Amino acid sequence: MELDKRGVPLQEVQDREQEFKEASRAHYELLERHAHEGYTPRQLLGIFLVAPWLILAKILGRKIFLGVKLGLSELDRRNYKKKYRQRVVMLITGTLFWFIVLAGIPD
User: Fold this and answer.
1) What are the phi and psi torsion angles at 50 (to 5°)?
2) Alpha carbon distances (Å) from 15 to 1, 61, 93
3) CA angle 100, 43, 33 (to 5 degrees)
4) Region 45-65: what's the mean pLDDT?
5) Domain-by-domain residue ranges, the chain?
6) What residues contact residue 35 under an 8 Å CB cut-off, 6+ apart?
7) pLDDT tens digits, 7-19
């Protein structure tokens, strides 16, 4: 009724509603695609190998105001569920691996 009072044609309203539905559907499909996308084995190995340095840079960067990010919030925001889990696992296992390796080196 309000749009009719303002003189907005009914066809224009229906066209915009249809455009919005199509955009919403496309966005939903994109989020679903993201949810199942994962890292390649090469990318996982890279995260695994640099994990302790990423975490250390994140902790130290906070104290000296550097913008080091682990990328987890961005993955969560864009619905990369599989990538999020893979990155968390690689950060934890990579850090544990390097601590064990460095602790095993004799003095």
Assistant:
1) -105, 5
2) 17, 50, 52
3) 130
4) 83
5) 2-104
6) 79, 80, 81, 82
7) 888 888 889 899 9
